[in-house]
Amino acid sequence: MTALPTAPILDLPVHLSADYTRSLVELVEAAQGGHVITLNAEMAMLAQREENLARLIRRADLVVPDGAGVVWALQRVGRRVRRCAGIDLVESALRQLAPRHTRIFLLGAAPGVAEAVGEGWRRQYPGLVVAGARDGFFGPDEASAVLEGIARSRPQLVLAGLGVPKQEYWIEQARRRLTDVVFVGVGGSFDIWSGTKARAPRWLRENYLEWLYRLYREPWRAKRMLALPKFALAILRGVRR
Protein backbone atom coordinates (compact mmCIF):
# COMPACT_ATOMS: atom_id res chain seq x y z
CA MET A 1 0.00 0.00 0.00
CA THR A 2 1.22 3.49 -0.84
CA ALA A 3 2.45 5.22 2.32
CA LEU A 4 -0.15 7.70 3.54
CA PRO A 5 0.28 10.80 5.71
CA THR A 6 -1.54 10.90 9.03
CA ALA A 7 -3.11 13.52 11.27
CA PRO A 8 -3.41 13.07 15.06
CA ILE A 9 -6.75 12.95 16.84
CA LEU A 10 -6.32 12.71 20.62
CA ASP A 11 -2.84 11.28 19.97
CA LEU A 12 -4.29 8.66 17.62
CA PRO A 13 -3.23 8.65 13.94
CA VAL A 14 -5.82 8.92 11.19
CA HIS A 15 -4.61 8.19 7.68
CA LEU A 16 -5.35 10.84 5.05
CA SER A 17 -6.31 9.38 1.70
CA ALA A 18 -8.20 10.65 -1.31
CA ASP A 19 -9.37 7.08 -1.94
CA TYR A 20 -9.62 4.77 1.08
CA THR A 21 -11.05 1.99 -1.07
CA ARG A 22 -7.93 2.00 -3.21
CA SER A 23 -5.78 1.95 -0.07
CA LEU A 24 -7.60 -1.13 1.26
CA VAL A 25 -7.46 -2.93 -2.10
CA GLU A 26 -3.72 -2.26 -2.36
CA LEU A 27 -3.23 -3.61 1.15
CA VAL A 28 -5.02 -6.85 0.28
CA GLU A 29 -3.19 -7.25 -3.03
CA ALA A 30 0.19 -6.76 -1.35
CA ALA A 31 -0.44 -10.05 0.53
CA GLN A 32 1.69 -8.94 3.46
CA GLY A 33 -1.11 -8.76 6.01
CA GLY A 34 -2.56 -5.76 7.77
CA HIS A 35 -5.06 -4.35 10.23
CA VAL A 36 -7.67 -1.79 9.18
CA ILE A 37 -9.47 0.24 11.84
CA THR A 38 -12.51 2.42 11.21
CA LEU A 39 -12.23 5.09 13.89
CA ASN A 40 -15.15 6.98 15.41
CA ALA A 41 -15.46 9.26 18.44
CA GLU A 42 -16.64 6.50 20.77
CA MET A 43 -13.65 4.33 19.92
CA ALA A 44 -11.27 7.27 20.27
CA MET A 45 -12.57 8.00 23.77
CA LEU A 46 -12.35 4.34 24.74
CA ALA A 47 -8.71 4.39 23.65
CA GLN A 48 -8.10 7.21 26.14
CA ARG A 49 -8.98 4.74 28.90
CA GLU A 50 -7.53 1.56 27.40
CA GLU A 51 -3.88 1.95 26.49
CA ASN A 52 -3.83 -1.44 24.74
CA LEU A 53 -6.51 -0.24 22.34
CA ALA A 54 -4.63 3.01 21.74
CA ARG A 55 -1.49 0.98 21.00
CA LEU A 56 -3.33 -1.11 18.40
CA ILE A 57 -4.75 1.98 16.70
CA ARG A 58 -1.28 3.52 16.50
CA ARG A 59 0.11 0.33 14.97
CA ALA A 60 -2.72 -0.22 12.48
CA ASP A 61 -1.88 -0.24 8.79
CA LEU A 62 -4.90 1.86 7.85
CA VAL A 63 -6.99 4.03 10.20
CA VAL A 64 -10.07 5.39 8.44
CA PRO A 65 -12.20 8.37 9.60
CA ASP A 66 -15.45 6.47 10.08
CA GLY A 67 -17.35 8.75 12.46
CA ALA A 68 -18.66 12.25 11.87
CA GLY A 69 -16.87 13.35 15.05
CA VAL A 70 -13.49 12.28 13.69
CA VAL A 71 -14.13 14.14 10.42
CA TRP A 72 -15.12 17.25 12.39
CA ALA A 73 -11.99 16.97 14.55
CA LEU A 74 -9.78 16.74 11.47
CA GLN A 75 -11.47 19.78 9.99
CA ARG A 76 -10.72 21.71 13.18
CA VAL A 77 -7.02 21.31 12.42
CA GLY A 78 -7.35 22.13 8.74
CA ARG A 79 -7.60 18.60 7.33
CA ARG A 80 -10.41 18.38 4.80
CA VAL A 81 -11.54 14.77 4.55
CA ARG A 82 -14.84 13.05 3.94
CA ARG A 83 -16.26 10.44 6.24
CA CYS A 84 -15.55 6.89 5.10
CA ALA A 85 -17.99 4.58 6.88
CA GLY A 86 -16.57 1.10 7.35
CA ILE A 87 -19.62 -0.54 5.83
CA ASP A 88 -19.25 1.56 2.65
CA LEU A 89 -15.50 0.97 2.54
CA VAL A 90 -15.93 -2.80 2.56
CA GLU A 91 -18.67 -2.81 -0.06
CA SER A 92 -16.65 -0.58 -2.36
CA ALA A 93 -13.52 -2.71 -1.91
CA LEU A 94 -15.41 -5.95 -2.60
CA ARG A 95 -16.57 -4.61 -5.96
CA GLN A 96 -12.91 -4.20 -6.95
CA LEU A 97 -11.63 -7.38 -5.30
CA ALA A 98 -14.31 -9.73 -6.64
CA PRO A 99 -13.02 -9.86 -10.25
CA ARG A 100 -9.63 -10.86 -8.80
CA HIS A 101 -11.26 -13.90 -7.11
CA THR A 102 -10.20 -12.64 -3.69
CA ARG A 103 -10.83 -15.09 -0.85
CA ILE A 104 -12.63 -13.68 2.21
CA PHE A 105 -13.80 -15.03 5.56
CA LEU A 106 -16.68 -13.56 7.57
CA LEU A 107 -16.62 -13.77 11.37
CA GLY A 108 -19.21 -12.32 13.68
CA ALA A 109 -22.86 -11.67 14.58
CA ALA A 110 -25.41 -14.28 15.69
CA PRO A 111 -25.48 -17.84 14.32
CA GLY A 112 -26.46 -17.92 10.67
CA VAL A 113 -26.06 -14.18 10.01
CA ALA A 114 -22.53 -14.17 8.57
CA GLU A 115 -23.37 -17.27 6.52
CA ALA A 116 -26.42 -15.50 5.05
CA VAL A 117 -24.30 -12.47 4.17
CA GLY A 118 -21.78 -14.73 2.46
CA GLU A 119 -24.48 -16.39 0.36
CA GLY A 120 -25.81 -13.02 -0.72
CA TRP A 121 -22.34 -11.75 -1.62
CA ARG A 122 -21.64 -14.75 -3.85
CA ARG A 123 -24.51 -13.56 -6.01
CA GLN A 124 -23.88 -9.84 -5.62
CA TYR A 125 -20.14 -9.90 -6.33
CA PRO A 126 -19.42 -12.47 -9.07
CA GLY A 127 -15.93 -13.84 -8.71
CA LEU A 128 -15.67 -13.20 -4.98
CA VAL A 129 -14.68 -16.33 -3.09
CA VAL A 130 -16.43 -16.53 0.28
CA ALA A 131 -14.06 -19.09 1.75
CA GLY A 132 -15.93 -19.40 5.03
CA ALA A 133 -18.20 -17.79 7.60
CA ARG A 134 -19.18 -18.33 11.20
CA ASP A 135 -20.82 -16.52 14.10
CA GLY A 136 -18.98 -14.54 16.73
CA PHE A 137 -20.21 -16.55 19.72
CA PHE A 138 -17.23 -18.56 20.89
CA GLY A 139 -15.35 -18.69 24.17
CA PRO A 140 -11.63 -18.72 24.96
CA ASP A 141 -11.60 -22.52 24.85
CA GLU A 142 -12.79 -22.43 21.21
CA ALA A 143 -10.63 -19.55 20.01
CA SER A 144 -7.78 -21.75 18.80
CA ALA A 145 -10.11 -24.02 16.82
CA VAL A 146 -11.85 -21.01 15.26
CA LEU A 147 -8.51 -19.58 14.16
CA GLU A 148 -7.40 -22.90 12.70
CA GLY A 149 -10.64 -23.14 10.76
CA ILE A 150 -10.05 -19.70 9.31
CA ALA A 151 -6.46 -20.62 8.43
CA ARG A 152 -7.64 -23.72 6.52
CA SER A 153 -9.91 -21.55 4.37
CA ARG A 154 -6.83 -19.58 3.16
CA PRO A 155 -8.45 -16.13 3.16
CA GLN A 156 -6.80 -12.98 1.93
CA LEU A 157 -9.27 -10.75 3.77
CA VAL A 158 -11.06 -11.40 7.08
CA LEU A 159 -13.98 -9.24 8.20
CA ALA A 160 -14.33 -9.43 11.98
CA GLY A 161 -17.62 -8.22 13.43
CA LEU A 162 -17.10 -8.85 17.13
CA GLY A 163 -17.68 -5.33 18.42
CA VAL A 164 -15.19 -2.77 19.72
CA PRO A 165 -12.74 -3.38 21.30
CA LYS A 166 -13.12 -7.19 21.29
CA GLN A 167 -12.58 -7.45 17.55
CA GLU A 168 -9.37 -5.39 17.70
CA TYR A 169 -7.90 -7.58 20.43
CA TRP A 170 -8.93 -10.73 18.55
CA ILE A 171 -7.32 -9.41 15.36
CA GLU A 172 -4.08 -8.78 17.23
CA GLN A 173 -4.00 -12.45 18.26
CA ALA A 174 -5.09 -13.73 14.85
CA ARG A 175 -2.38 -11.82 12.99
CA ARG A 176 0.29 -13.81 14.81
CA ARG A 177 -1.04 -16.94 13.07
CA LEU A 178 -2.22 -15.42 9.77
CA THR A 179 0.58 -13.06 8.91
CA ASP A 180 -0.35 -12.49 5.25
CA VAL A 181 -4.06 -11.76 5.84
CA VAL A 182 -5.70 -8.34 6.01
CA PHE A 183 -8.19 -7.92 8.84
CA VAL A 184 -10.95 -5.31 9.00
CA GLY A 185 -13.05 -4.74 12.12
CA VAL A 186 -16.64 -4.21 10.94
CA GLY A 187 -18.57 -4.01 14.23
CA GLY A 188 -22.27 -4.68 13.69
CA SER A 189 -22.19 -4.44 9.89
CA PHE A 190 -23.19 -8.07 9.34
CA ASP A 191 -26.61 -7.34 10.84
CA ILE A 192 -27.10 -4.56 8.29
CA TRP A 193 -25.76 -6.56 5.36
CA SER A 194 -28.08 -9.44 6.24
CA GLY A 195 -31.12 -7.18 6.62
CA THR A 196 -31.45 -8.03 10.32
CA LYS A 197 -31.15 -4.32 11.09
CA ALA A 198 -31.87 -1.27 8.95
CA ARG A 199 -29.28 1.38 8.18
CA ALA A 200 -30.04 5.08 8.52
CA PRO A 201 -31.54 6.76 5.43
CA ARG A 202 -28.98 8.20 3.03
CA TRP A 203 -29.85 11.84 3.80
CA LEU A 204 -29.05 11.28 7.47
CA ARG A 205 -25.76 9.59 6.61
CA GLU A 206 -24.75 12.36 4.23
CA ASN A 207 -25.43 14.95 6.95
CA TYR A 208 -23.43 13.04 9.56
CA LEU A 209 -26.53 12.16 11.59
CA GLU A 210 -26.40 8.38 11.41
CA TRP A 211 -25.69 8.31 15.14
CA LEU A 212 -29.05 9.97 15.79
CA TYR A 213 -30.88 7.29 13.83
CA ARG A 214 -29.08 4.57 15.79
CA LEU A 215 -30.08 6.23 19.04
CA TYR A 216 -33.70 6.40 17.87
CA ARG A 217 -33.75 2.72 16.90
CA GLU A 218 -31.67 1.55 19.89
CA PRO A 219 -32.29 3.80 22.93
CA TRP A 220 -29.98 1.64 25.01
CA ARG A 221 -27.12 3.35 23.17
CA ALA A 222 -27.79 6.57 25.10
CA LYS A 223 -25.12 5.89 27.72
CA ARG A 224 -22.55 5.07 25.05
CA MET A 225 -23.44 8.25 23.16
CA LEU A 226 -22.18 10.30 26.09
CA ALA A 227 -18.76 9.74 24.54
CA LEU A 228 -19.68 12.20 21.76
CA PRO A 229 -19.82 15.43 23.84
CA LYS A 230 -16.78 14.28 25.82
CA PHE A 231 -14.91 13.76 22.56
CA ALA A 232 -15.92 17.22 21.28
CA LEU A 233 -14.77 18.85 24.52
CA ALA A 234 -11.44 17.01 24.41
CA ILE A 235 -10.87 18.15 20.81
CA LEU A 236 -11.72 21.79 21.59
CA ARG A 237 -9.38 21.80 24.55
CA GLY A 238 -6.62 20.34 22.40
CA VAL A 239 -7.14 22.89 19.61
CA ARG A 240 -6.99 25.76 22.12
CA ARG A 241 -3.70 24.43 23.46
From TrEMBL:
Q: Which domain of life is it from?
A: Bacteria
Q: Does the keyword Nucleotidyltransferase apply?
A: no
**What Gene Ontology terms describe what this protein does at the molecular function level?**
hexosyltransferase activity
Q: Which Pfam families match?
A: Glyco_tran_WecG
Q: Which keywords does UniProt give here? A: Glycosyltransferase, Transferase
The name this protein carries in UniProt is: Gll0650 protein
Organism source for this protein? Gloeobacter violaceus (strain ATCC 29082 / PCC 7421)
